[in-house]
Amino acid sequence: MPDCLRWRFGIAIGIGILTSHLCSCSLAWGHFLPARRRVEVGRKTLDKDATSGVASVAAANTERCGEWQQELFRIWGSVVALWTGLDCVLDPGVRPEDPAALLKIALPTAFLVAPGAAVAACARLKPKPIGLEEGMDSAAVVFVGDSLTQGTVSANVVEVLADRCKRRQQHLGDFVNAGLNFRALEDVVTDPPAELMKTAAKIRCSHGLVLQLGSNDLIRYLSVPELLRPTEEEWLQNYAKLMHQAATQLGCNGGKVFLVSPPPLGEALSSPEFRLGAEMARRIELVATELGCSYVPLYEACVAYLAAGQKDPTTASRYSLMDFLPGLCVLPWRLYAARQSLSQIQEEQGLDLTVDLVHFGHCYAKLAADVLEQKLGLAESKP
């Protein structure tokens, strides 16, 4: 292979990985995943009193789609321009004054990085109801988490809770969304000097600080070949240690901390992913007991929901990285370009709770909101 092609190939792959943070250069955005199985949708009917009119379960509005498109083209254009410029510098055979030569570089690059740019754009959308910077004085609850908290590629549970309180005419304060796509527990603990946790801990919360992290930690662990990764017990011990550190940092100013067990990966109850998820939940509960935090059994609630609705567990969809990545790459285009709702995507995929085996739809929004509302005592609070 000529040296110039080696440079192009290597840098293109590097940019694609960097852009998506999850090797999104799988080129799977061109078509939707085939539905794995069709399920009865009667059990999926929304509780209208619980989630009616909430943006997290409806199709994205025009303003949100426009915001995503702006972020998409900003990232997309920057990466394509960077790669094209690098290719001009590294390959003496490229003539920058020739538009045709530049197009031969830019067009394949644009296609290559489109999935990653779309996913990255979701991470840059404005948090809803409000972000951490806007709730610096006081709030009802601060939620620290990953994409399941941010709610730009998954149901926005924080927004559901805020909407419920609003319709009950409860003026409890702000619901602060400090979620971020791709965030793992190890990121917030090792990010010196743990600025996210310190910032969140400074906010005076009437109902508490909620920490839900672990899904991306598990994804990263499972993505490493078995021979190269630590044993399950070693990894779980380290996860519990990180959770202990994060909870301590979050509660350093005396705020009440709620530790949430992450929902499972996939929907196959008998899978190794569920077994690891159950063990993670057990370790989180032990940490919560040790530190005097409140434990929120979200994992257990999801398992109970799936167990009650699956007629044949053997046909349930199991998580795998190769199934998840194409679904993730397609998801932003379906949400913000085709303007499909999460419920539509979930139904077309034939899934009960998830929309891509990791992120969740409207059933999860209601389920998680019910669990959190009860633990936080929101329903009992006076208007």
From TrEMBL:
It comes from the Eukaryota. The chain crosses the membrane at residues 6-29. Residues 143-304 form the SGNH hydrolase-type esterase domain. The keyword Transmembrane helix applies. The lineage of its organism: Eukaryota, Sar, Alveolata, Dinophyceae, Suessiales. This is SGNH hydrolase-type esterase domain-containing protein. Keywords: Membrane, Transmembrane, Transmembrane helix. CDD domains: SGNH_hydrolase. InterPro entries: SGNH_hydro (IPR013830), SGNH_hydro_sf (IPR036514).
